[in-house]
Amino acid sequence: MEILVIGGGVIGLSIGVELLLAGHDVRLLVRDKREGASWVAGGMLAPFSEGLRGDFLRFSVESLRLWHDYLERLKEISGRKVFFSQGILRVAFDEKEEKKLREDVKFYSQEVCQNLISYDAEELLKEFPYLSSEVRYGVIYGDEGNVDTEELMEALYVAFEKLGGEIINEDAVKILRNGERIEKVFGFFEEFTADYYVFATGAWLKEHFGFPVFPVKGQILRVEAPLKDYVVYSSRAYIIPREKDLLIGATTENAGFDTKTTLEGVKKLSEGAISSVPQLKEAQLLEVRVGFRPGTPDELPVFYFGENFSVYGGHYRNGILLAPATAEVALKLIDQGEVSEYFKTFSPYRFKE
Amino acid sequence: MEILVIGGGVIGLSIGVELLLAGHDVRLLVRDKREGASWVAGGMLAPFSEGLRGDFLRFSVESLRLWHDYLERLKEISGRKVFFSQGILRVAFDEKEEKKLREDVKFYSQEVCQNLISYDAEELLKEFPYLSSEVRYGVIYGDEGNVDTEELMEALYVAFEKLGGEIINEDAVKILRNGERIEKVFGFFEEFTADYYVFATGAWLKEHFGFPVFPVKGQILRVEAPLKDYVVYSSRAYIIPREKDLLIGATTENAGFDTKTTLEGVKKLSEGAISSVPQLKEAQLLEVRVGFRPGTPDELPVFYFGENFSVYGGHYRNGILLAPATAEVALKLIDQGEVSEYFKTFSPYRFKE
Predict the structure, then answer these.
(1) Are residues A208 and A325 in the same domain?
(2) Which of A24, A201, B219, B235 supports an S-S bond with B251, CB 3.0-4.6 Å?
(3) Which of A295, A312, A327 represents a domain boundary (last residue)?
């Protein structure tokens, strides 16, 4: 089939790559490659550290389990390296957090995560002496990990084009829809028709479908620091050592599509980081970045399909983690007509009930 | 005379300009135009806000009184505009600061500063509603002011060259000294001789003369913010609205010539600024800058002269303020052989006593 993917973030690209591998002709419309949340995301694959539950946990864990093979295949196709670190150190700094984290550890170790090691304060500081002495409890979720999102996105673009996909720099200004069929997509310069349409426009999804997806602004610091160890995740900040730099995330702001960094954001993030890992005092600030998570009222994704189109959005804080499973859901629908149960779980109709 | 000035900061340039105006031939060696403290300085002309006393206060006030004419003449010669704002709002946020500031106000109003208005907390918040409600007491020192140091430095360079001065990009690697005479200055590429030598090498003064001048690292934030009013100066931060941006200064660090910005510095400055003027929360961070104040053990300058040379350094936090008076001292010595009393006040021999 001739397929048009609208959206050049991690979701659109992942789906595009799967469709190309299945033999389809794929064009991808992207307004501004760097605009979306994907490039700015921390890149944590962290359903346990995030404390997820229920169907969303199940979907997240399915996606987490795909990641290893997904990345190997992507590296093979693209010929690019993508930095990945295994394991996340989730820590608690106060009594309430400790209680919640102990519950999480109990819950996940029974259910879905065998590979974890928990530490009381003393052991934790012995094992990870760079942590603030205020730390009370911690756990290494060994199955979690972190991916360098910039390298990931570059590899996805390279893979997409190597597989014969076409990138078109265009804004999908308007879509012509007739009931459950898309007739045409109007770009700024051109019009586009295809046999099938995939929409993955992140925080901008509302424009075309009216689903309640809205931007949740996040600021993230990029610093230079010698720390090379696990990602440290707490309510104060998440601290992500990478090969050449370290990320400190992230604010959560209801500020529309305001691309400005703020002093308050920088203050909160630097406070959070230094109070978690005091040696970050000496880290050199390289950059402050802003991204827009595609949020929804219940913080769960929105999946939808019509006759010749489907929609994958609202991944909020977990777009990177959920890309492989989302691409699998899309591939099964588009290539084999198989409707995943997650179209029900993540149906936009839930917002009308 | 043929005069060689070593050092391209505000002190070296100011002296160079005066010497050119007096008819001398002046060459100026500068290793790296942007290296010194001058470009990064906040630009406050603030002897009262700084709480100065004694001979240093006298010298500072003399320099402050020169500033208006100094700037007018500089603008005329250079044809450049230099942003200047009149008056500094000095505020106190706790009891101890309030006590000290009330003493200062009493002292300065009797002695040297007629042009001041003091405010109790309530009046202060009525007059300056953008201040944090924690403010307890404040004063406008009307004779103080603030100069845009980047525009100042650019104007000084333009003026220096318009007056026929020659800028040479060279490092003064070594000087050949014979008792109280300088014989030669060895650059990296060339050697230099002159009838007279002026040394104004800021935080690097120790290299050639062994005087106890050392770098005091300062970080300063440059942000975009709508505030257009007085400079706000307190122990928490100084906040300097300029035409196109706003400066937030400054850390005081004993870190040698370490040019790195730090997360701790950014954190402290943003905390200080937001807790003084809460609306700065929304300010967009544009840049973090680092400079090296030329510090001395007693925080006073070092003036020295020999047969055919003189030295002006150690201006610490007040190099911009003190440039006109320092240039006047130098001009009188070099052009008229008149030895200012300040060579005694700021003699390096005081460190040997």
Answers:
(1) yes
(2) B219
(3) A295
Cα separation values, A55 from A92, A320, A349, B190, Å: 25, 18, 17, 75
For the residues A23-46, what does the mean pLDDT come to? Answer: 93
Q: Residue B221: inside a domain, yes or no? A: yes
Q: Tell me: pLDDT of B268 over 80.
A: yes
Please give the helix or strand (H or E) that residue A234 lies within, else none: none
Q: Which residues of B touch A261 (CB under 8 A)?
A: 284-285
Q: What is the C-alpha separation between A312 and A196, in angstroms, rounded?
A: 14
ipTM of the complex, rounded to two decimals: 0.80
Domain identity same for A182 and A197: yes
SS3 A200: coil
> Is B284 in Cβ contact with A264 (below 8 Å)?
no
Whole-angstrom distance, CA of residue A327 vs CA of residue A324: 5
Best of A264, A267, A269 to substitute, by most chain B Cβ atoms within 10 angstroms, is: A267
> In chain B, what residues touch A283 (CB-CB under 8 Å)?
262-263
Q: Which CATH number belongs to the domain containing residue A6 in this structure? A: 3.50.50.60
Measure the CA–CA gap between A58 and A24, rounded to whole angstroms: 29
Q: How many domains does the structure of chain A reveal?
A: 2
pLDDT at residue number B25: 98
List residues of A whose CB lies inside 8 A of any B CB.
221, 223-224, 248, 260-264, 266-267, 270-271, 273-274, 280-285, 288
* E strands in A22-129: 25-30, 44-45, 84-92, 116-120
Q: Which two tokens stand for residue A174?
A: 């308007």
Domain span at A234 = 214-295
How many whole angstroms separate alpha carbon A218 and alpha carbon A237?
12
Q: What is the CATH number of the domain that holds B249?
A: 3.30.9.10
Answer whether A311's CB lies under 8 Å from A304's CB. yes
pLDDT band at B353 (very low <50, low <70, confident <90, very high): low
Please report, as a single letter, which amino acid is at residue A99. Answer: K
Asked if residue B339 belongs to a domain, the reply is yes
Sort out which chain B residues have CB atoms less than 8 A from A267's CB and list them. 267, 270-271, 274
Length of chain B: 353
Residue B46 lies in a domain: no
Q: Which of B262, B264, B274 sits opposite A263 (nearest CB)?
A: B274
How many Å separate Cα B21 from the centre of its chain?
A: 22
Q: Is there a single domain that holds both residue B267 and residue B160?
A: no
A35-81 pLDDT per residue, tens: 889 999 999 999 999 999 999 999 999 999 999 999 999 999 999 99
Q: What do you get for the CA distance between the two ends of chain B, in Å?
A: 36
* CB-nearest partner of B284 from A261, A270, A284: A261
Closest partner residue to B261 among A263, A284, A288, by Cβ? A284
Whether B57 maps to a domain, the answer reads no
